[in-house]
Every structure is written in C-alpha cells, then in structure tokens.
Amino acid sequence: MKNKLFKAVFLGLALSTYSIPVQAQSVPNNQKMEWFKDAKLGIFIHWGIYSVNGISESWSFFNNYINHENYMKQLNGFSASKYHPEQWVDLIKESGAKYAVITTKHHDGVALWDSKAQNAITVPNNTLAKKDVLSPFVSTLKNSGLKTGLYFSLPDWSHPYYDVNTRTKKRYEIKNDQKRWQNFVNYYQTQLTELSSQYHPDLLWFDGDWEHTSDEWQAPKTLSLLKKYNSNIIINSRLNTHGDYETPEQGVPVISPTTPFWELCYTMNDSWGYQPYDLNYKTPNMIVRTLADVISMGGNLLLDIDPTSDGSIPEKQVEILKNLGRWTSKNTKAIYETDHGIPFENYKGKSALSKDKKSLFLYLEEAKSLTKIYGLEQKPKSVKILGDNQAVITMDYNQDKTLTLNFSNVKFDKDVTVAELIFETPPTLVKNLKKEEYSLTGLLENKSSQLAAYDIANALHYGNNIMTNSGLTSDGLTMTIKKTAKTNPETINWISKHAEALFETEKGLPDGHYSGMSALSKDKQTLYLFVEGTPTGPVALKGIKNEIARIRIVGEGTLLDHKIYNKLYWSERPGIIYIDIPKDRLDKNMTVIAVLLNKPIELYREKVGAIENNL
C-alpha cells in the first residue's frame, strides 16, 4: 500500500465529509406515513373463489382460459369451513409483520363482505360459505394491534355496468354510454364507502387503475370520499397519480425507488391466489434475504399468502412465515424503524441505519471471517451480533478511514446474521471517496491470504486490475510474478488457481445487481462473482437480461445449476437468478464463480412497477 501517512494528511486537508442522509422531511403527509415506513413487513392475503379450482384470480376468465360462466361456478365451492381468523392473525403477528392487506374484492367482482351495492356479488349471499368472512378478520386484526389494509380492485369484470368483460370482449364504449359508466363509478364508490364506514382501514390498496384514466375513475372524488372517514388514510400508487407510495411488484428493484415510501409486493411461489400445483416456492432463506434486501433500500416487503377455499393456509407458507418470525424476533432492532443503508462503494453488502442514525446494521448472508467498510470518518464505539451476546468481533480502523471487522468468533445465523455498529454520534462518510491504492508486493506479503484476496477483488471490482503486467498468465501456469522472502505462498496459489478471473478482466457490476464484488471479461460475456465465506443459501443475481449458457467454479471446473424466480415470460424484466454452490467446493480464501452469458452483458436498471398484464 502506498504511503499511508501522506494519504491520511491528504484526506484530512482535501476531502470534506457528508452525513449519512436522513429521509427528507419536506414530503407532504410524512407524519401519517411514519407507521408505514417503520413497519417494514406486511402480509398480503389473496383469498377468493379462485381458490376453489386453484386457478388464476380473475385473469383466468379475462384471458379466456376458462369462460366466465364456468369460472363463476366456483361460488358453489367456496366454503370457508376451516376459516379461523384468529389463527391467521396469530400467524401474521408471529411472522413479525406490522400490517396486513386482504383482497376485499378482486377483478372478478366477488366481495368478501355483505356489500349492498347494486348488482354486487358477495361471499355471504352467493357462495357456499353464506357468511361475511371479511368482518371477523378485520376485527381480530385490529384487536391484535396490527394495522389494517384493504385491497380493492377498481375494475370489476363481472359487473354489468363495467365496460370491459374479457381481453377480447367489451360491453360498451364509455364515450357512447356515459350514463352506464357513471352507474359503475357510483357502484364502486358505494363499495368503498361501505368498506370505509364499516372497517375504518389504515390503508387502501388499489389495483387495476391502468384500465382507465384518473378522470374516468373520478379519482379525486374517490380520494375525497376516503378521507371523509379517515383523514390519514394511506393510498398505494394505483389510484393513478393520487397515491402515497410506490408498489413495485414481484421483481426486487435493482436500484432503490426514488420516492421516500415504497413497498415490494411479492409472492412465495409464482401465484397470488392458491394454486395447488404451483410448488415453485422460494426457500425460507430466500424470503429472509429478500426482506433484508428491501430493508437495506429503505422499503417494505408485502409478502403474499393464499389460503385455500376452506380457509386453511398451506403448510409451506406457514413454514416460511414461522421462519420469518424466528428471524424478525431475533433482529428486531435491525428491522423496524430503520432507514436505507450506506452506499455500496462504502460497504459491499446490505445495510441499514437506525432512526437516530447511531447504529449501522450489516446484513451478512454468509459465514465469513471479515468484511470492510470504506470511507468511515468515525470508528464505532462497539460492534455486536444481534441475538448473540457471546459473539466477539474485533475491529481494525486505519488512517485511510477503512474499518475491517473480524468475525472469527461468531456463530452465524442460518439465514442472515446482523452485525450492529454503534456510534457515539451519527457517523459520516468521506465525500468523493478515493479507492484504496494497493501495491502487488504489499498484497503478496500480507500474512492473511483472505485479506489479500479480498483487496485484489475489491480493486478489480472498480476496474483497477492489480495483476496487469505482473507476470500473471491466463491459465496461472509459468507465472513470473515477482516474489520476496515475505511473499505468502497461499496468496500466490490463490492467484494461480483463479488466474482466469484476474487476467485482463475489467470493472464489475454496478450497485444493486450482486451483493458482493465482481468483474467482467474483456468481451463482457463472462461475469465473475467473488463469493466470500460460506453463503447461507444460493448466490443471488438481479437485473441480468441475458440468458445463461453455463456457470462453473473458477479454477476447478465444477459446473453449477441455477434457478430463476419471478421471471414473467411476457415481460422484459428479468427474474432473480439463484446459484447454488456446494459447500465442499468453496475456497477458504474466496471462491470465484464464472457466469457465461449468451452475449455481452445487458443490465436491467429500470423502475419496477405494477403488473398490468397476466396473459
């Protein structure tokens, strides 16, 4: 490493610092949004007659996969015979969720409550259940202290006054029958009046606004109606332009949404409503890590469950919720009332800050010996592992403003371990952070081969290939790297083994795609992932548009499988790629994975929005 004393003086004279940003206070209605921002986890409940046959909610007849008449025959099978709302609420509360959102009426128009609106189709009056199933749930939810969210579909594809029936069939054109459309507006606003007056929800979760304009929905009037019953009602982003927060759907954003409040709505498998043959569940580990990902970006996770037609919740979903509860109860401080973490250039992982900004939480998705935080102006007064008072973490804070944490004496969580860094005052980060400068000789002489591998990978991630003109060869054989008496042979062996990923490779992925360091081959068609320690689950990649040709472990040839979740075949938005690495093939210093793509890499960094198509 170059002259540290010079660098320290230079930093002190030339670089200013900036405080870790606090959420802007100029946003209207921030006070009413406080509980929502602090909640972090909510449970979505899709329950309706579509659970009888286990087919897509409403979309199955809209897309003409089944005709409307046969779809509606499910009314006769919706029994709710094993429906125990208190068990639902107990499970939701155990998961660590602070609110729930239930589908009071989906696009098929079937209301869970006893709606008196004209031509309403309801569970109490038109199904085998013959009872209002919404009221007891909301009552139990409120008594538990959890916040109440009601999902409401603006479209009603079954209602005679609505203009759209299926993808290929319209009842009428609004411009030709304004009176009929006004009758529909009156109908849906009557239902919203019923929901508001009877249940006094904290949140209204709209869906389907894309089918009409704000003027056609008469959205300002709808909003005024809702505020009449609750002046602090929170509205999601799907009442055209009248919402309080964004609702990205299914795909975890690569880049944090720019709005102060947002919520990822997310399924456990591939379906919103109950489908018995959809067994493509994410693992409990993946769900915990998704929650950590969302928290680190300052958002909420609204995780979906889908009860069966008798009201029971599938065992796999119960397992996922209970594991969430295990993790949330252990890491309460690092979940609720937190804000987004520090930039990726400062820490190669997921992080969050406490509300008072005096605690920085690191979400560790692997069991590893060390990690680094760059450009940290203050040394923490202490570091601890949440839920483990016996853990011992040592700190090394140098004059380059780099903090190295050693986790050698830590028992890691099976999903995500949380390290809390506690400061006397809110920490600040060096502005215009200069990347650490390394000398190859210094790295080779480092007694810790793990630290050397980490520093080589970190430099390469930013396009500083230390191995250029060093004597490295493409295959790691016949290398002429200059050695000294202090050269660490283990570091030389690691370089030789992973020469492919170090020889003429270039800058890695930008922030958001991978929670770690990476590099790209010269032709941009092979992505190299540097994997620290022992991952608790499969390595995750977001926002890769390419098809994957092959994945292997660098330096030893093992081919690896991968699985993609949340990829909608008709959408350009890529799914999340999960790569399993056998534990017995991990390198003790740092494992490198080569992901061969079908063409030079293409990244998806666009905004993730609502799903407006389910063909």
UniProtKB/TrEMBL annotation:
Transmembrane segments: none annotated. InterPro entries: FUC_metazoa-typ, GH, Glyco_hydro_29, Glyco_hydro_29_N. GO terms for molecular function: alpha-L-fucosidase activity. This is alpha-L-fucosidase. Belongs to the glycosyl hydrolase 29 family. Alpha-L-fucosidase is responsible for hydrolyzing the alpha-1,6-linked fucose joined to the reducing-end N-acetylglucosamine of the carbohydrate moieties of glycoproteins. Residues 1-24 form the signal peptide. Gene3D superfamilies: Glycosidases. Residues 23-332 form the Glycoside hydrolase family 29 N-terminal domain. The record marks 265 as: May be important for catalysis. Keywords: Glycosidase, Hydrolase, Signal. It comes from Chryseobacterium lactis. Its EC number is 3.2.1.51. One of its GO terms (biological process) is fucose metabolic process. The keyword tRNA processing does not apply. The lineage of its organism: Bacteria, Pseudomonadati, Bacteroidota, Flavobacteriia, Flavobacteriales. One of its GO terms (cellular component) is lysosome. The keyword DNA-binding does not apply. Coiled coil: none annotated. Pfam families: Alpha_L_fucos.
